[in-house]
Design a protein that fits this description.
11 helices; five-stranded antiparallel sheet; 30% helix; globular; 402 residues; D-amino Acid Aminotransferase, Chain A, domain 1; Dna Ligase, domain 1; five-stranded mixed sheet; alpha+beta
């Protein structure tokens, strides 16, 4: 049986560009090569697409050289069902036209992005147009999962337990700082946590215990986004993460983890720089696996995680983050990560699912989702065009009775 070709998409124009590279390289090194071949598809911070074996080497990214031997700039053929990566080169001789080369035909795409222009539904929309299988959550779930403000409103609308929060605009803050600070203090008591709306990996996230810290936190967050979420902070909460795998209402949960943070909030440094190796991504972060938080709380976290997964029509692997208030033992949902760091493989490994098997399952679910889409009728025909004629000097439409 011929091997299937997996195309791993990563990088892109995101503050989490480097984290995405780590996730992608980890994944490509874990793909079961007896079943799959792999094509790396790296998107630079300028938005250019490249492929080539050199991309499997981490050192290639230290000072990325697009002209390095073995790299080819490519684009995705958007013809429905093609899955082709195309490379164009200048022809030689008198007729110097462009020559088109099919570099690879991808059977299934694995988006390994983190952040904007990849995890937010934009690339998912591109893959939907190309009509190819892909492993991540679809357009709507990805978009909601990326936008912390919309995500929070979704959670609240579904009746899920969330911390109190407000949203602010950069323009409001720049026009009247005092009003923005006053509103925050009126609606939320200190401490608070300030987060850019469309960013992950805890970049730009700050803890504020007074007005001076709040001002600094908002200034930082607005450097990264024009919209900011401010949430009520908890005093040293217990953070719990749970990964969910599935599609179409059928889900399973991973082991639970309790991340270890050295600060008030779990920030970028805690996640990626304090572990044994920053090249291991989220897998290197300090954590307690299957923490002793009580059977009932563990059950509730798994139930909520699966319910959120289904409500957002997620696909593949996601991670959902929670907080437990030490003072009250109340459970709150923090956020969903539709493409979790390191694909949360370390959580599944502890649940008895090795990374290679996790990849197999992700591909099968992507193919199942694509097959379900193909069952939809996209060829509905009507007589509407026969009843329309273009008339008049300005091309006005005139319709008869339908």
């Amino acid at each position: 049986m011929a091997k299937k070709m997996l195309g791993v998409l990563y990088g892109s124009r995101s503050c989490e560009h480097e984290v995405s590279i780590i996730t992608a390289l980890q994944l490509m090194r874990s793909v079961p090569r007896d079943e799959f071949d792999v094509t790396p598809i790296y998107i630079t911070q300028a938005g250019e697409w490249y492929t080539g074996e050199k991309l499997l080497d981490l050192s290639t990214y230290n000072q990325f050289d697009p002209y390095r031997s073995g790299l080819k700039r490519v684009s995705l053929d958007l013809t429905a069902g093609s899955g082709a990566l195309l490379h164009y080169s200048q022809g030689k001789g008198l007729l110097r036209g462009l020559t088109e080369e099919v570099v690879a035909r991808i059977d299934c795409f694995i988006p390994a992005f983190h952040g904007m222009h990849g995890e937010d539904g934009s690339v998912q929309g591109l893959l939907e147009l190309a009509d190819v299988p892909y492993t991540s959550t679809g357009i709507v779930g990805s978009a909601v999962g990326m936008d912390k403000i919309v995500m929070k409103r979704f959670f609240q609308g579904m009746g899920y337990p969330t911390l109190p929060g407000i949203s602010l605009l950069r323009s409001q803050f720049e026009e009247d700082r005092k009003a923005a600070l006053f509103r925050t203090e009126q609606e939320l008591s200190y401490p608070v946590v300030v987060k850019p709306a469309d960013l992950g990996s805890s970049i730009g996230v700050s803890f504020a215990a007074d007005r001076a810290q709040l001002t600094e936190a908002l200034e930082l967050a607005f450097e990264y986004d024009r919209r900011v979420l401010v949430e009520k902070g908890l005093d040293h909460p217990v953070e719990i993460n749970c990964s969910v795998l599935g599609f179409d209402g059928k889900t399973e949960c991973s082991a639970l983890e309790m991340p270890i943070s050295s600060g008030e909030v779990l920030d970028f440094a805690n996640k990626y720089l304090e572990g044994s190796s920053s090249s291991k991504g989220m897998a290197s972060m300090g954590r307690v696996m299957n923490p002793d938080i009580g059977e009932e709380t563990s059950r509730r976290i798994r139930e909520l995680s699966q319910d959120i997964f289904t409500a957002l029509d997620c696909k593949g692997v996601v991670r959902i983050d929670f907080m437990i208030d030490r003072a009250t033992d109340r459970l709150y949902i923090t956020e969903i990560n539709t493409i979790p760091g390191s694909m949360a493989f370390y959580l599944w490994d502890k649940a008895g699912v090795p990374y290679a098997e996790l990849i197999r399952k992700m591909v099968r679910l992507a193919e199942q989702a694509h097959q379900e889409k193909e069952r939809n009728n996209f060829a509905y025909r009507s007589e509407i065009l026969k009843a329309v004629r273009l008339g008049g000097s300005k091309g006005k439409l005139k319709t008869g009775k339908l």
